[in-house]
Write a structure and sequence with these properties.
Structural class: mainly beta
Largest sheet: 6 strands, antiparallel
Distance between the termini: 43 Å
Number of helices: 1
Helix content: under 10%
Strand content: 35-45%
Order of helices and strands: EEEEHEEEEEEEEE
Number of strands: 13
Length: 174
């Protein structure tokens, strides 16, 4: 089994890590590892470990986010379909405050994005269907929607180019 990753920090926003797995391919298809504790958790603060996983299946043109909190680390990817993953720097003391970065994730470009606390997490589904996966690391209890911050997907101060003008949104994101 192959557990190799290429890991580098974002050149646009410090603190975001881009993890590209090494892919094994043969006549049957491909296989790659999305998580190997010893390789991935070394990028977390020493006391943290991933505690739970979530999956979300969404239709084309669904836009989820921009959400975040002040303590959760998220390791995100698309396991099926194509998403445009966006991370927004919400750290008020950061030189890149309210800057954003987009990552295109699909079967031809599998990658995982490690997002630290105080970053806004969002994605838009570009394929007919996509399955989004994220692992979460945090201390204490999990902060669910009522304890998270939400930023409008189309906030003009941020100016994200989603490539879509009329996304399908939840009530929270509307």
């Amino acid at each position: 089994m192959n557990f190799k990753f290429s890991i580098k920090e974002s050149e646009k926003i410090k603190g975001i890590w881009i993890i590209k797995p090494e892919i094994f391919q043969d006549e049957r298809g491909t296989i790659w590892t999305s998580f190997f504790k010893e390789e991935i958790e070394k990028w977390l603060p020493n006391h943290l470990h991933f505690r739970h996983d979530k999956f979300s299946e969404s239709k084309q043109n669904v836009l989820r986010g921009i959400h975040g909190d002040n303590k959760s680390w998220k390791l995100v990817t698309a396991v099926y379909g194509e998403i445009h993953q966006v991370v927004v720097d919400c750290r008020k003391d950061s030189p890149t405050y309210l800057h954003w970065e987009k990552f295109i994730i699909n079967k031809n470009n599998p990658q995982l994005i490690l997002i630290p606390p105080n970053m806004g997490n969002a994605y838009c589904v570009k394929s007919q269907v996509a399955v989004y996966h994220y692992k979460m690391a945090y201390t204490g209890d999990y902060i669910d929607a009522d304890g998270q911050f939400t930023i409008p997907w189309n906030d003009p101060k941020i100016g994200i180019n989603w490539g879509i003008t009329n996304p399908i949104l939840s009530n929270r994101d509307n």
